[in-house]
């Protein structure tokens, strides 16, 4: 696995930018590695506790989440950015 940057994540509330590296398995993992406190429970896309708002950009899911995801929401535990994104943490 490479540690090369594949995308940047902007936290819309604070304008903080975080680099997403190819070695990160999910947005949740990446945010945790940068000491960003994010609510979560299952880490598998079942519960929806890690729900966030996708302000701009696109994500790809590692596996289709089982939790209901509304338009404009993402589950941080089971997706990766597909290019640069901006999110609001709940």
Automatic annotation (TrEMBL):
Cited PROSITE patterns: 2FE2S_FER_1 (PS00197), 2FE2S_FER_2 (PS51085)
InterPro entries per record: 2Fe-2S_ferredoxin-like_sf (IPR036010), 2Fe-2S_ferredoxin-type (IPR001041), 2Fe2S_fd_BS (IPR006058), Beta-grasp_dom_sf (IPR012675)
Swiss-Prot/TrEMBL keywords: Ubiquinone
Domain 2Fe-2S ferredoxin-type residues, every copy: 7-90
Species of provenance: Pseudoalteromonas aliena SW19
One Pfam family here: Fer2
Name under which the protein is recorded: Ferredoxin
């Amino acid at each position: 696995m490479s540690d090369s940057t594949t995308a940047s994540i902007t936290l819309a509330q604070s304008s903080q930018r975080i680099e997403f590296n190819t070695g990160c398995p999910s947005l949740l993992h990446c945010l945790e590695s940068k000491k960003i406190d994010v609510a979560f429970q299952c880490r598998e896309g079942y519960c929806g506790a890690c729900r966030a708002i996708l302000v701009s950009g696109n994500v790809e899911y590692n596996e289709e989440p089982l939790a209901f995801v509304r338009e404009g929401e993402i589950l941080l535990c089971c997706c990766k950015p597909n290019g640069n994104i901006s999110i609001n943490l709940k």
